[in-house]
Write a structure and sequence with these properties.
This protein is of the alpha+beta class and 115 residues long. It has a single domain, classed as GIY-YIG endonuclease. The chain is 33% helix and 21% strand. Helix 1 runs antiparallel to helix 2. The chain starts with 22 loop residues before the first strand and ends with a helix.
């Protein structure tokens, strides 16, 4: 899978909301996801491959947010002080059972509204 949905190796996932992501990243592309989204604000979605269930979130700095998701130490720290269904699921099922989509980029002041 590649990060650009127009690439020869990418997959376009059909879903009930007809959302077409800008980019799709597998776990093996975590470093690329972090690098390509440095300093960018936007809306993202994690999809659990087995069921198609998803979590939509937004961030002012997507790269920083993804760094938290891809760090077991950070996940443990967050879960020790609050509840997070997506982080708990990632911890339980493993990263390879999820893929990450970039749904849109937007101004940092609009991230919550766009989510």
């Amino acid at each position: 899978m590649n990060n650009n949905i127009n690439s020869k190796n990418s997959r376009v996932f059909i879903n009930k909301h007809n959302i077409v992501p800008l980019f799709i990243y597998s776990y093996s592309e975590k470093d690329l996801a972090i690098k390509e989204n440095k300093g960018k604000s936007g809306v993202y979605r994690w999809v659990y491959i087995s069921t198609g269930e998803s979590y939509i979130g937004s961030a002012v700095d997507l790269s920083k947010r993804f760094s938290v998701y891809y760090s077991q130490k950070s996940i443990q720290a967050v879960l020790s002080r609050s509840k997070s269904n997506i982080l708990s699921a990632m911890q339980k099922y493993g990263y390879s059972d999820f893929y990450l989509e970039i749904l849109e980029y937007c101004d940092s002041s609009q991230t919550i509204d766009r989510e």
